[in-house]
Design goal:
Blueprint lengths: L1 E8 L8 E6 L2 E8 L2 E6 L13 E3 L2 E3 L6 E3 L4 E2 L2 E5 L2 E2 L1 E4 L2 E7 L3
Antiparallel strand pairs: 1-12, 2-3, 3-4, 4-10, 5-6, 6-7, 8-9, 11-12
Length: 105
């Protein structure tokens, strides 16, 4: 099962930027590209850097420490798509942003 967690308002995240949220004890980065919102795990699996502090370009965020690049659409490492981080559906309801995450266990 999954649940939707409200994490903010659409106006809180300008186009081309992101925010960091904690959901069920997990750090998640929420990105805005145009009118689309994406959510991935905030921690790079290589060395633990915060991806919300990375550079965003063409739907890919680059880790600020060692430049690993992750696609926002599916959380895959752009250089080796077999490596993935968590990726969460984002729903916009009115002016609110909601993340769809697995139930906390």
């Amino acid at each position: 099962m999954s649940q939707r967690i409200p994490v903010g308002l659409i106006d809180d995240i300008p186009d081309g930027s992101n925010t960091f949220v904690e959901v069920n004890g997990k750090d998640v980065a929420v990105f805005r590209v145009g009118d689309q919102f994406y959510a991935i795990d905030d921690m790079c699996p290589h060395a633990g850097a915060s991806l919300s502090g990375g550079h965003l370009e063409d739907g890919v965020v680059t880790c600020p420490w060692h430049y690993w690049r992750f696609r926002l659409t599916d959380g895959a490492w752009a250089d080796n798509p077999r490596v993935k981080i968590g990726c969460y559906p984002v729903h916009v309801v009115g002016d609110k942003i909601e993340l769809e995450v697995p139930d906390k266990t």
